[in-house]
Input
Amino acid sequence: MLSEEKKREILLEKDICDHCLGRQFAQLGHGLENYERGAIIREKEELDENDFVRENIPEYAETGGECEYCQGVFTRLDHYTDMVIDSFERYELNTFLIGIRPPQQAVKKEEELWEETGVEWTEPLKTELSRLIGKKIEERTGLEVDFERADIMAVIDMRDGKDRVELQVNSLLIYGKYNKYSREIPQTEWPCNNCRGSGCDECDWTGYQYPTSVQQEIQEPFIRETKGIEAKFHGAGREDINVKCLGKREFVLELIEPLNRDLDLKKLQREVNEATDKIEVFDLQFTHSDKPAEIKQKHANKTYRAKIKTEDRITEKDLEKLEGLLGEVEQDTPERVEHRRAEKTRVREVLETDWEYEDEHHLILEVKAEAGTYIKELIHSDEGRTVPSVKGLLGTESECTQLDVIGIDK
Ligand SMILES: [Zn+2]
Ligand SMILES: [Zn+2]
Output
């Protein structure tokens, strides 16, 4: 590693602007811009960390200057700032992030310089540019730089002597909970199995297998208000089409490339709920991009209510055998989902069970079970592939005629 003094000597022999000189010592002193730091280095006889204070900045110090190491980009900071602000015009934003693709020649010269003098105390060209331009944009627009979760990322491409701005518009995410009161709609948009969405006779040229879904019932006003191009729906698990969910299932609605972000969520929630009796949404709030993974990992216990029809006659006394459902259940992957999941035996726990005798062939069963328990199979046994089961315990064919999710643990 070179001494600071040696590094200074080598640099001063080069045709280098104050920005690029100062940037090689960016970690020395506080509250200075690199060109001010560079001007101090040029002025002083030797390098002393105590010299990096405002009083020592020479009068002539100014940002910019032609030089091989930056290709003169610092003379164009306002130009880049204008370009980015113009590109933001269509979007309603609170936060942003700047990315830089510097001129190739500057990158090459910077790498050569680092090989010669090391990278100690330096700030890369990219970092300085994005910092300076980001600050100018903040001052002019009132938007804030956000390194974690910016609404938009503007990449300034300075390569090939052309200046371009590429935008990456980040999704707007809305968290909420839903209930599903229909036994006829899936959770997410379901393109026609026949035409895969392009439209055909079988789907009445709608492109959909089911005319609507929980997703569609929710997303419409959000796409309209944000002018996003589409939405993705992330549910904390899902229920079958013919299953109601009354337990308030968590979801995140992801709006892709929105123009508008300042939504009145209360108003939109009311609009969704007034437009449909198939679903209802609750507790809508803005969230962040980690939330979909978070709610999917939760594996909350769920409580179900099932209407069951038995083949043989049953008595009220028979139902006491249903205590046997409590504890571990072994389930081979059901036939109906086999094409989607690798075949295996999973073990889940039934935590609570309760029942109501209706008549000689009908009962209502309530079970609270671990996430991922196949409830219909827990009832009809899936030809012995789920043990124990209602069918096994009662000793007669048992069919689930109706299923509701009535509770989801927090
Ligand atoms: Zn320079
Ligand atoms: Zn079709």
